Amino acid sequence: VTPEVPAEIGLTFGTYEEARALVGTRTSVVFAERAVTGALIKYFCAMVRDANASYWDEEYAKKTPLGGVIAPPTFAVSSAHWDPNYALRGVRKIPAPPPKPAAAASAPVGQGGGGAGSGGGLNLTRILHGEQRFEYHKPVRPGMMLTVTNRAGKSWTKEGKKGGTMRFSESISEYRDEKGELMVTATSVGIVTEKAVQS
Amino acid sequence: VIPGVDYHQRYWEDVAEGEELAPVEDEITYRRVVMNPATTWDYFPGHHDPEYAKAQGQPTIYINTMHFLGFIDRLATAWGGPASFITRRKMSMRHSIYAGDTMVGQGRVVRKYTDEPGGRTRHLVELEITVENQDGQLCVPATVHLELPARQAS
Predict the structure, then answer these.
(1) What residues of A are in contact with residue B64 (Cβ under 8 Å)?
(2) Nearest chain B Cα to A129, which residue?
(3) Which helix (H) or strand (E) is B65 found in, with range?
(4) By the CB < 8 Å criterion, does B62 face chain A?
(5) Which residues of chain B are within 8 Å of residue A129 when distances are taken between CB atoms?
(6) Model confidence pLDDT, tens digit, residues A133-182
(7) Half-sphere exposure of A84 (CA within 13 A, CB side)
(8) Is residue B83 very low, low, confident or very high in pLDDT (cuts 50, 70, 90)?
(9) What is the pTM of this model?
């Protein structure tokens, strides 16, 4: 039995205990409110300056083994394009700046934005973003209506030098097309440290 | 043919282990950093508000994870060609890229192999990729598995 947790909670990690309580839970499926389009794909590619013909030229792409224009791998993860619940779209409340600049000075890279279902209000000094792994099963294409579910994966601990005990928790996002076929599996490892990390 | 679009294709048979990918340099101006939230709808203030970033103890605004990912993908498929397909990628964030930095991507082929998921032969290479800043500081190490077209379909 996988108890459902509201999508708004996401699988960001406040404390290790909170993260641990989420193991085995699964968010409700988030459905796209609009299809992937060629225009959104080009918009993203223009920002990254990616001139790959498979993103830009339908005539060409039809003749390759890919069989038509595809979205770049990162497109599915930039889920605000299609996920109506995305927390940082700009129409929702954004996280307040950290209250103590001195404590926040030890904030590592990562900073808590980005990613499917990520919310605000993270304890920035104690959460590090670890490794992120992605598996691309099939290309995302214009016309697809994507869905995503997030679930907690494994969690484990390790003794760190700077921050005391480090708690690792995996968050797994599965992106599917409108037929339910798996397109992308994204696994991100969040690390919560016992103490604020002094760099 | 669309001007500015890259059509050059590489085939699996032509790749050697140890081969270096063409490096890519990208100047990250304030405009580029802000373009990112605009195209990914990631309005986390650290990516567009220098005051917020400074309150976090950062020197100024910094690019988001999706920009790093997109840059890594660009490096890999600009080398592999438009018919190549990224099957797997892992990365970790070690250091940020800030407005005013230059992002430098480099890569190397560490393995050439085939597999047969579901009976279909895939021709793959494993790439080791680094994203550094202009000072040679490692920001994001990544590993990418890229499927390439083969001249001889098996």
Answers:
(1) 113-114
(2) B93
(3) helix B65-80
(4) yes
(5) 65, 92-93
(6) 999 999 999 999 888 888 888 888 888 777 678 888 888 989 999 999 99
(7) 8
(8) very high
(9) 0.81
